[in-house]
Amino acid sequence: QVHLVGSGGGLVQPGGSLKLSCAASGTILQPNTMGWYRLHPGEQRELVATITSDGSTNYGDPVKGRFTISRDGAKNAVYLQMNSLQPDDTAVYYCNLYATRGYASENYWGQGTQVTVSS
Q: Given the DSSP bridges, would you call strands 18-26 and 10-12 parallel, antiparallel or unpaired?
């Protein structure tokens, strides 16, 4: 129903920056929440940041003050500007779209993009 394609990952040195992008296609329910979650090797998936249709944001503690999430409603896209990257930010980053219709929910995930922070 919904296809998410994330991009923008790569290898950067500590202190560097990356910008992740994710575009959703298909039947997009409104309102919805889009966001980014990351998976460290051997760890549970954790919240990076989310943003609602009306612009309300939520950040995980490890990235607050360094990452900024934004979205373009017309393009059904969400972005993650990552600054001051640290080795602990190394993970696979997954784009997410969450929406509800009555008591039903829809939760879609992108394929993941690898971010590696290393010197």
A: unpaired
DSSP string, 22-69: EEEEE---SSEEEEEEEE-TTS--EEEEEEETT--EEE-TTTTTTEEE
**Closest alpha carbon to 82 in 36, 31, 41:** 36
Which of 98, 100, 58, 99 has the alpha carbon at shortest distance from 80?
A: 58
Q: Are 45 and 107 in contact (CB under 8 A)?
A: no
Compute the mean pLDDT over every residue in the chain, rounded to the nearest whole number: 96
User: What is d(CA 51, CA 59) in angstroms, rounded to the nearest whole number?
Assistant: 9
Distance CA 16, CA 2 (A): 32
**13-70 pLDDT tens trace:** 999 999 999 999 999 999 999 999 999 988 999 999 999 999 999 999 999 999 999 9
